[in-house]
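Minutes, project check-in

Agenda point 3 was the complex the collaborators sent over. CS summarized: two entities, 910 residues total, and the question is how they sit relative to each other. Sequences were read into the notes so everyone works from the same version.
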Amino acid sequence: MSSEPIERRVAYIGDRLRGSRCTLCGKEYFKPKNYCGSCGRKSYGMIENIDFFYKEGTLDVCTFVNEPTNKFTKLSPYIYGIISFHDEKVRFPGRITDLLIKNNDEIDLSNLEGRKVVPRFRRRHAVDPSGIVPTISLAFSFSDEYYPYQEYRIVKPSKEYEKPGIVGYGAYSSKFRIKEETMERSVPFIDEDSITAAVEAGKMALIHSGADHKSVAKVYVGSESNPYAVKPIASKVAQVLKLGEECQAEGVQCVDAVDTEFACKAATSMFKDAASLVYYPDLEETHSMVIGTDNSQSATRGEPGGELDLFVGYGSCAFIFGTHDVIAQFEGWSSITSDTPDFWRRDTQPYPSHGGRFTGEPAYFKHVTKAVQKLIDQLKLEPPDVDYFVAHQPNAVFPTRVAKALGFKEEQFLPGLQVAKFGNTYSGCSPIGLAAILDIAKPNERILIASYGSGAGSDAYSFITTPQLVDKRTRQKFTIRYQAENKYIDYVDYATYRRFKRGMHTT
Amino acid sequence: MKAKCPAIISVGRTQFGEHYEIEPEHLVWEAGLTAAQSAGVERRDLEACHFADYFLPITNKIGLEEGFLSELLELNVPMEITRSFSSALSNACNAVQAGKYSLVLVGGMEKMTDRWDKIRDDLMLLEDPWSYYAGCTPEANHELMLRAYIKKYGISGEQLDILNMALAEFAVRNHSNALKNKYAQFRKEISVNAVLKARATAGRPLGLFDFAPISDGASALILTNSELAESYTDKPVYILGYSLATDYITFPSRNDLTGFIAAKLAMNDVLKKTGVKLEDISILELYDQSTMMGMVSLEDLGFCEKGKAWIDIHKCCQEDREFFELNGRKLFVNMNGGLKADGNPLGATGGAEVFEVFQQLRQEAGERQVKVDDELRYGCVHEMEGFGTKAYVYILGMEPDEQ
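CS then shared the predicted structure for the full assembly.
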C-alpha cells in the first residue's frame, strides 16, 4: 500500500473486523454501513456497529495458495478460504495463519472445511522496508488448536480496593518453538511481530480482567523491537482494542497511549506509573494497561552479537491495573539506574550488540540485587516472607544465581523461571514470569518481581494476591503452562526459525 | 419496418498471445483497420469510437488512451474508454439505438505481458482489494467456487472424479477447437492427463491448464444501425439484444457462492427482451477464465441444470461430439478455443467472442464452421468483468428484430 489514507482506512476496518448490523432485519455486514440494503431508507439510524474481533467463525471452503501474489510470497504456501460468522450471516475472505505447510498432499481440504476459527491480528503482507507496516485480522487460526477461542465479557466490578493493583493479565507466545538442547524458545510465525504480539496480549488481558475496554485511560507499550524507529505501537494497540471511549465520527479513541523504551525493563518500569494513574483521586472506575512485547532480536549465530541467537524468544505480556476487582495488590517498589552500556542497538542497525561478560557482573547482578535488597529493606521483609520471586531471565543461569544470592529457595523462584520454555522475550520476559505465578498463586501470597533493563536499571515490585485471583482464573484459558505444554506446538528447525524471524522483510 | 437494432458490419482482430514489440494502441489500430477495410468503411466516416481496456493505466502507464488513438487514427471524433469490450459495445449500441451515431468503431485491447511480473497483484487488487489483503490470488476464487459447488451439491467419490474429469475435458476441448483458429494464443492439443497432471503438480484443485492465460491482443468491429447495415454488407449480423448486470465486489459476501448471479440476471433479461428461446441459440461463446467458470456459466446462462453441467460436459466430451447436446438441441460452445486457448487479453476478449459468432452466423468460419440440422439462428456472447462482478450477454442473429 503506497497511500497513507488508504492504509489508515483499511487498518481501521480490517484490524478489528468492524461490521454493522441492521436492527430492523438483523442482516449483518462486513465494514461499517449506515443503511441496510434490504430495509432501505427506513434503516437509516437503525444500524448498529458490531465487530468480529472476539468472535469465533467457521472455515466454509478453502484452497491452497502456493503461487501467491508478490506481497504474499514470504507466507507461501498457505490456506486461503471463506470464513463465516453468526451462522453464515456474514462472510469474510481469510487466510489461515500459524500453519506451516510442508507438502500440500499432507492436507485434505475437506478436513479443514467446517472447522472453527478465530480471527488473529497479523501483518497483512510484505511492504518496502521504508513503508507503513500493514496489519489486518483477516488471518485466522483453528480454535481447537494452540490458540483457543475466548469470549470477552465485560463484568461489572464487585469490589473496590483501597490500593491499586493488577486486575487482569494476558501472556502471548506463538505456536512455534525451536528446541535446542534444554531450551525451547517461542518463534514468531512469518506474519507476527512485536506489534501483533502486543495486541494479542492486551486482548487476553481484557478477556481475563473482564474490565471494560472503554475504562482504560492509558496504555504503555514497552519494546525494543518496534518495527518502527518512529511511530508508536501503543496507538495501534489502543485503536485495535478500542481502549478508552471511542469517538466514532472522527475514528479516534479517548485514551493516552505511549511507547516506552529501556531495553528489557521498558514495560515493568511503567507498572508504578500505571498503578499511580488509576490511584489518582476522584476517578471513576479507571484502568491502565502495560504491555511488554518483543520479537527479540539477535544477529545470526557466528556473527558479532550472534551469541544471543541461542536465547532470543518471542512473546508479549499485558497487565491491567486498577482499583476494582484487584487480583494482586501493589505493596511497594524500588528502582535502580546507572549509565552502564552493557547492551545496545544503534539506530538503523538491525541487531543489538552486547558487552559479553560485562552484561553479567557489573550490569545484571549489581542492579537486580540492589533493587531487590532496597525493596526488601523498605518493606522490612526477610526472604522467607516472600512466596514467589521472579527475576529478569535472559537465560536460566542469571536469575537462578541472583535468586540464590538473595537468599531465595528453589520453590520460591522456579515457578517464575520460564525462560527455558519461551526464550528471552526481552520486555515481555520478567512479566511472563509474573504471569506464570499469577496462574498458580493462592490468595494472600507475596510475589516479588525484579526486572532488568540494559543500559542499565532494575525495578523491583511486591504484590500481594487477593481472593479474586482465584475467581478470575476461569477466564484465563491461555495460561503459561497451557502455552508451554501445548500439544499443538510446532517445533521448527534452525533454518525455518531464521526464516520466521525475518518475517515478511523483503531484504 | 426494421426495428432500430444495431448491426455489426465487420469485425477484426489480432492474434492473441505475446506482442512484446507492439504498443497496445497499435494493436487496436490494426484490428480496427482490418474491420474498417473489410466493410469498406472510410476512417473519416466514423462518427465515434468506443474502446475498451481493463487496466492499461496500470500495465502500460497509459492514461489518456483516447489521445493515443486519436493521434493514430487522425480522427477527432468522440472517443470513450471503458473496461471490457462488452461495455464498449453496449455503450455503442445505446448510442446507435438512440440515433446519436450511425457508424461507430468499437475496439478492445490489452497488453498484459508487458507487466508479467506484477500482473497477478494488479488483477487481484482490481478484482477485490479485501480479498487481496486476505491473501487471495486470481486463481483462488475459482477454486473456492469449485469447493463450494462440490459441497453444495454433495458431489463425492466417483462423481467427484467425473466432475474433475469433465473440467479437464472442457480444457482439452477448448484446445482442440483452437487448432482451427489461426488467431488463437495456443494452437496445441493437450490431453486430459496433462490437465490432471498440472493440478497434481500445483497441488491444488485446479492447475495450469484449467486457467486462461495472460495475453496481449486487440479486437474491433464496426457498428451501424439496421437501416444502413445492408448498404455496407450483404450479411450484417444484428445485435438482437444485450443486457448487463452487476454483483458485489467481494466474492465471499455474495449470497450464492456457486455461480454468478450477474450472468444469470443478464441472460434472463436478454431472453425476455428479445423473445429468443434458449433452445434456438446454437452458438455460445463463454467467458471461461477457468474450466470451473465455464462449467458454472453454462448453468448461470440456463443451458444446464444447476449442479449438473459437469455431467453434460463429460457426456459431450466422452462421445467426442463437436457440440453439447442439451435437451435434444445442439449447442456449439467456444468454437474459437475459448479464453483458455484463444487467449484472454481482457479488454479485447469480448471482441474475439463476437468475432467468432459473427463469422459463424455468416457461415464464414472456414474449418471451424458449425453445422446445425436446421437454420443457424442465434449466437450468444457472454462476457464478465472481475470475478463475476459484471456480466454482459449479447444475442446475435442474421435477421433484425421483427417485433
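Noted in discussion: Chain A has two domains: 4-17+52-149, 160-498.
Follow-up: revisit at the next meeting once the mutant set is ready.
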